[in-house]
Structure formats: structure tokens, C-alpha cells
Amino acid sequence: MILDIMLGVVAAGSLTALCLVSFKLYIKLTTGICYSQVCLRGKTTIVTGANTGIGYQTAIDFAKRGAKVILACRDETKAREAVSEIIKETNNSNVVYKLVDLTSFTSVRKFANDINSSEERLDILVNNAGAGRLGNKLTEDGIAIVMQTNYFSHFLLTMLLVDLMKKHPSRIVNVSAVGASAGKIDFKKLTSFTTEANQYIVTKLCQILFTIEFARRYKNTNITAYSLHPGVIKTEIFRNLSPIFRWFILFLIDTFFKTAREGAQTQIYCAIENGLEKYSGEHFHDCKMVKRYKSARDPSLAEKLWQESERIVKLRSVEDQI
Ligand SMILES: NC(=O)c1ccc[n+]([C@@H]2O[C@H](COP(=O)([O-])OP(=O)(O)OC[C@H]3O[C@@H](n4cnc5c(N)ncnc54)[C@H](OP(=O)(O)O)[C@@H]3O)[C@@H](O)[C@H]2O)c1
């Protein structure tokens, strides 16, 4: 009897171990890697939120390829450290940081003005910075903080840099998340706080819809746009979870999912892979184009979001028309 129970426990343990190893193997085998050999010498790139996580890894990759890399960060100490690490690792001294706080439209406008007056070209813009669980605070612009950080500020930044990007073939890469598939936009509550989990996925859906509408509106220009889900990755994005839950999540991710370097691959791919232009507006997972989520298939939703976004960020203000 006891022997039967022991054998049963051993069998169940072995089966569980086999399932876990198979799952890990599946994740590793399906992790998309960007194998492109494209050289970025002479190109200028901006990565928002590049002092850590997948933004940092993206900046390293662009620097290795010879690009000028501008790290768009909010914390000067972290940004300076990241720049010096990247220069040390890549031997590319053309890596700089510029400060931008995505919770403030004034800061975004200042950053964009600086770029427009100091750079002659902009070939790649990766709208990567993001955060979750920021609480129900409003920004100085009166917008729910996660909506402004993840979406509205990137919308504004992109639109302020569009003229510079039009000068040469260029790409916009919007870092979304698979959670966007469960997102639902309530236009009456676009700027106000709803629930924490819902708001994050709505920001990620907005990035996809923005990409679709951008591709439609800028079809006959030099600029193309892509959105993507980078995977489940061990980064600081989980910093605002409770300590025990964070430890548990990071343990799981560390064991089964992606490193930051692996997580950066799809955005690098969207930014540099040759021949992607015809897929402008499309969404990517693991360095492959995927079918749009159901939540992002209605083109009228994308158009409406664009119009609302223009109004909310005051894109057509006198300042922008100068
Ligand atoms: N990690 C995942 O599993 C996962 C999954 C799906 C999607 N994503 C998306 O991937 C992107 C990168 O995230 P990550 O995982 O690399 O996270 P991360 O390590 O936390 O990096 C986020 C970056 O965004 C910056 N940032 C946050 N708020 C900002 C603000 N107000 N102004 C300027 N910069 C700000 C952070 O700067 P500080 O260091 O100064 O805070 C940091 O550089 C995000 O858009 C995220 O939603 C991640």
C-alpha cells in the first residue's frame, strides 16, 4: 500500500517535471531571434525608456550596429549609467541620453523640440517606455498617469517628430503587449482612471490602434509603423507589485520565460529587418507578423482614437504649427 502511494507520488512528480521541462523547451524554441545583419552606421535612433529592460537591450543592439543612439529617459543618473555601460560594451561613442518624462506633455514637447533642432535625421523611433500599477493618480495634464506614460505621450512624441522622420525612410516601433487582446476602449473614460489592470491593457491596445491608423494616414510617405508583443520578460516592469507576489512572478519568469535580451528581439526586428515596409501597421510576436487581435480589428476605432488623441494632447496647438 505504502509502496503504491510512493510509486504514485514519484510518477506524478516525474510527469510534472516532464511537463515543466517541455514547457520551458517550447518557450525557448519559439522565442524569436532577430538574425538580421543590417548595419545602422549613419542612422539615428531613439529608444524611450532605454536605461533598463528591453529598451536598454535594444539600445545596445543599435549601438553595436553603429547607429547614433539617443536614450530617452527620465532619470539622469540611471540614463548616464546606461550610456556609459553601452559605450563600454559596444565601443560606439555615439550614444547619448536626453531627458524626457512621459508623465508631462511639456517635457515631451521640450524633448521633441531639442531633437528637431539638433538632429538632421531620425531613422528609428522605438516607443518602448512603459509602466503599470502606478495608482489612480492624474498627471499635471489631468490624465490618468498610466494612460499618459504608456500611450498619450508616445502619440505626441511621434507626431512631433514626424517631419524629421519624413526626410529619410524611417520606422516607428510601438511596444505593446498581448494583454491588449482583452482591452476595450471606453472613449468617455479615455483620460480618467478606471481599474489598474484594465487601464494598462487599454494603453497597450491604444498603441496597436495608433500603429494601424498611423500606417493608413502615412501610407504615401517614407515612414512605416509596427506594433509588437515582446513576450513575458524578466525586467523591472514588475517593480510596483507587492514584494512577495513580485518575487513569485520573477521566479516563474526567470525559470520559464525570456531574458531582457531575448525580449528585445521583436522590437529590434521590427526596427531593422529588411523588407518589412509592406507590413506597415501590422503586429508582431517573436519576430513574426501575427493576425491582429480581435480587439484591434475595427478601423473606425483606430480612427476615432486618433482624433481623440489629437484633441487630448492638443496636437493642433499654435506651438505645433510654427
Ligand atoms: N516585461 C514584460 O514582460 C513585458 C510584457 C509585455 C510588454 N512589455 C512592455 O515592454 C516595454 C518595456 O518594458 P520593460 O519590461 O523593459 O520594463 P522596465 O524594465 O520597467 O523598463 C521600463 C522603462 O520605461 C521607463 N519609464 C517608465 N515611466 C516613464 C516615464 N514617465 N518617463 C520616461 N520613462 C519612463 C523606465 O524608466 P525608469 O527606470 O526611470 O523608471 C524604464 O526605462 C513596456 O512598454 C512594457 O509595457 C513588457
What is the correct CATH architecture? Answer: 3-Layer(aba) Sandwich
CATH topology: Rossmann fold
**Number of structural domains:** 1
Main sheet: strand order: 3-2-1-4-5-6-7-8
Shape estimate: globular
What molecules are bound to this protein? NADP nicotinamide-adenine-dinucleotide phosphate
Instruction: Note the total helix count.
Output: 11
Helix % is 40-55%
Strand content: 5-15%
Strand-pairing-aware structural class: alpha/beta
Using the coordinates above, name the CATH class.
Alpha Beta
| Sequence stretches where pLDDT stays below 50 over 5 or more residues | 318-322
Order of helices and strands: HEHEHEHEHEHEHHHEEHH
Radius of gyration (CA) equals 21 Å
Mean pLDDT: 94
Number of strands: 8
In short:
The chain is α/β, with parallel strands linked by helices and 322 residues long. The protein has a single domain, classed as NAD(P)-binding Rossmann-like Domain (Rossmann fold, 3-Layer(aba) Sandwich), CATH 3.40.50. The chain has helices at residues 2-30, 53-64, 76-90, 105-118, 145-166, 196-217, 243-256, 260-263, 265-272, 299-312, 318-321, and strands spanning 44-48, 68-73, 95-99, 124-127, 170-175, 223-229, 283-285, 288-290.
